[in-house]
Amino acid sequence: MGVVRIGQTEVAYELRRSAAASERRITVTPGHVEVLALTTDDDAEIDAFLDRKRQWLFNTLRELETKTSKRAVVPRFMTGSKIPYRGRMARLTVRRHDGAHIEIDYRNGFLVDLPSWVREADQDAIVATEIKLWLKRRVRRDVMDIAAAYRRRFDLRPRTIRVADMKTGWGACGPTGSILINWTLVFAPKTVLEYVVAHELAHLTVRSHGPDFWAHMATLMPDYERPKGWLDTHQGALDAAFLDVSDKASALATGHG
Known about the structure:
The chain is an alpha/beta fold. It has 3 domains: about 1-70, no CATH class; about 80-135, no CATH class; about 135-235, Metalloproteases ("zincins"), catalytic domain (Zincin-like), CATH 3.30.2010. Helices cover about 35% and strands about 25% of the residues. The protein has helices at about 45-50, 55-70, 125-155, 190-200, 210-220, 225-235, and strands spanning about 1-5, 10-20, 25-30, 30-40, 80-85, 90-95, 105, 110-115, 160-165, 170-175, 180, 255. The strands form 3 sheets. The protein has a 5-stranded mixed beta sheet, covered by helices on one side. Helix 3 (about 125-155) packs across helix 4 (about 190-200) and helix 4 (about 190-200) packs across helix 6 (about 225-235). The two termini are about 20 Å apart. InterPro entries: UTP_pyrophosphatase-like, YgjP-like_metallopeptidase. It comes from Brevundimonas vitisensis. Pfam families: YgjP-like (PF01863).
């Protein structure tokens, strides 16, 4: 292990050399920094590379710390763990049964029944995958129910409405009236999900975000400012990365040079 000093902070890193590498690289992952060097590099060349990347490394570590502090932390998918759902942390119970299939239910908490063929080493990844699938089905049903209610009350009829994994934004209304809703809103209170659905439905009538739009929103959802405020405050916490057990070691960023 090597150490690079950034101000008053010492950052430990693992040095790895590769004959196949064509350039040096720093990879930052939660709790780990790896420096990939060329087999021909001597200590001075590695130190010079780290010196050039000092500011990048500092910024990347700070960004990673900010992101991870906002994410839900589920160290193990086992009985007693907490899963974010509809604005609160729900208890997870994992049980074994003699059936052939994995079963999942929600009764004041997540209940996952695993058959005996599931190996202990695979439990975290399987439980996380099943919960993710369940959450996506749940939020799709919620979105369709909300949209149906607004259709009955206000005759708002999008061309299509679907729930998707959106990289940015919470919803979108296309020029043809097709609506997208971000599935990670399942982690927010249901009123917040309703606000986003109503917001995109409102764009069927008013495309801009000017005064006319917000006046229209007030007719659709008179108390929209409260869920809007919740989303503005907590949006950084609506992150599904904790469910990607197989991807926990993936890099936030990589520096080349």
